[in-house]
From TrEMBL:
Annotated cofactor note: Mn(2+), Zn(2+), Cd(2+) and Co(2+) support activity to lesser extents.
Active site (UniProt): E66 (proton acceptor)
This protein's UniProt keywords: ATP-binding, Cell membrane, Kinase, Lipid biosynthesis, Lipid metabolism, Magnesium, Membrane, Metal-binding, Nucleotide-binding, Phospholipid biosynthesis, Phospholipid metabolism, Transferase, Transmembrane, Transmembrane helix
One Pfam family it belongs to: DAGK_prokar
Protein origin, superkingdom: Bacteria
Organismal lineage: Bacteria, Bacillati, Bacillota, Bacilli, Bacillales
GO biological process, one term: phospholipid biosynthetic process
Protein name: Undecaprenol kinase/diacylglycerol kinase (ATP)
Organism name: Pseudogracilibacillus auburnensis
The keyword Kinase belongs to this UniProt entry's keyword annotation: yes
UniProt membrane topology term: Multi-pass membrane protein
Length: 119
């Protein structure tokens, strides 16, 4: 009974986290808008099941990377608001996580959509 209660509350906090990220993180919002456009593309071009799985995995990786980056930035701003070389390295590496996810998803998106659009 106690466990059940805990799970319910945890889910509420998780949804609140999503709400906060949407409200406060501009880049997260941009990624969500891009996600909606990509899903319309997928529907229009009638992707195969395997193509859908790959695109959904990439969307998921980019959104998770963006959330991890946001929480790193917030943790640094909370714990080390003044300039510090280590804080810079942490934030820069955190941004690199998003960059790698975004570059990979652009490459994969091009591989999947290029032949459908241009060939
Ligand atoms: N406390 C700090 N100490 C050292 N360098 C910092 C610090 N805070 C930010 N920076 C540098 O400034 C860059 C931008 O940081 P910032 O927190 O503004 O993130 P951002 O990438 O602009 O994200 P957002 O647009 O979501 O705020 C970091 O990547 C880092 O190089």
């Amino acid at each position: 009974m106690k466990d059940k209660k805990k799970k319910g509350i945890g889910l509420t906090y998780a949804f609140n986290g999503l709400k906060e990220a949407f409200k406060r993180e501009r880049n997260f919002r941009i990624h969500l808008y891009v996600t909606i456009v990509v899903i319309f593309f997928c529907l229009y071009f009638q992707l195969t099941a395997m193509e859908w799985v790959i695109i959904l995995m990439m969307i998921h990786i980019v959104l998770i990377a963006e959330l991890v980056n946001s929480l790193m930035e917030r943790m640094i701003d909370y714990m080390k608001p003044e300039y510090h070389p280590q804080a810079k390295i942490i934030k820069d590496i955190s941004a690199a996580v998003v960059l790698i996810a975004a570059i990979t998803s652009i490459i994969i998106g091009t591989i999947i959509f290029f032949p459908k659009v241009f060939l």
